[in-house]
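Q: Can someone sanity-check these two? First one:
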Amino acid sequence: MLTAGELYCMICTQMFREPCDWGGHWSVIQALSRRGIQAMEDEENGVSQENLQEAQPINLKSHLAVLDALMEAYINEVISIEGVVTAVKKFATFNASQELPYDMEDALLFWLNKVGRTLQDRRGSKKVNDPEGSDPSGWDLPTLDDILKDLSDGRVLLAVLCFYCPNHICPEGQARPLAELHETAVMCCHHN
């Protein structure tokens, strides 16, 4: 699917919602370029259609560059700093003069930190009110400073899922899945 470009075309159809004949890799590269995004293999070389069509062996570096560029395009299509701030205002308070994000990465860190803090505050108040209540096995969310480094163990992703889908991901009184995720994350960190 990757070397034929089908997957990329399906992604672009859903993401860009523009009339276009998604005819393979070249149309995807062009759509990204029109949005100011270049899929780059390294600092000097852009991804080519020929590189993406290589099948024996697959040119993984080129495909990862396209996937990265598609993720950047998606972020640019659906997320704005104002939208993030509006979303956070629905569940948290903050000091606008000190905490407003200044770019997209800062906005993502702002949102994730507010979700994590709000979730911890909620869990903390439940524990104070019910000392026998669920204890997420010492589950402690870090304050994020670096998006790539701080998201590596999965705890913040789990916090987002618990925050937005509490009855499906983290049912009350069931701390074991959190403990299992933590154990899995620790094991993965030791084997990287």
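And here is the second, same format, sequence then tokens:
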Amino acid sequence: MSGGQGGGNSKDGIRQVTICVVGKSGAGKTTCIVRYVRGFFQDNLDPTVFDDYKCNFTSPRSGIPYSLKIKDTAGQMEYKDIRLLSYREANAILLCYGINDKNSLDDIRRDWYPELNQYATNALKVPITLAALKCDLRLEYTTPEDQSKLISTKEGKALAKEIGAQYVECSSKSDSIGVDSAFVKILTLLETPNNRRSQEESSSNPIVAFFASIRRFFQSRMTRS
């Protein structure tokens, strides 16, 4: 499967898409994926080093059937080399944080976004959706003191705008703010014409990518002259 933006390849009329789920350990990434793929909430999961989940989904926007490969990546920085391998396949990135971790926005600015910017968004033009997880806590934390411990919607949207990402809120526990919205957002983003790349540019073949970059270089030189 080719990495990069463009919605993936098609097989027997079913579009193949790889979504790479990224974020700090403990943010709730694996719980989010399990809820989406298997349909139930599972707590106390072991930290992930690397795992793949697969499911089928039909876009409510376009009616297009999808075969999704969802790559659950390690949130620990010592596994960065393994995580980078996942970006090569990605058609989209779901960048996650838990709203109960006030330091996570700074982590995204300092660690996660620079990594994605270098290896995915700039290198492969892969779009990012920023997902605020554990949003059921907004209903559980009822006092102003408790609410102040959570990252607000306003803060999350501001960060998404800052890094050029789409924004979505969801919870693996709650049906009303369920995780489906995150994946619908991603597929809608991929189906938007302005977010597509040519097949040549999105190719994972390094030789094709090399010659495409040379062609763009000379085209830019000719335009300036």
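A (reply): Looked at the second one. The CA atoms of residues 176 and 221 lie 53 Å apart. The radius of gyration is 18 Å.
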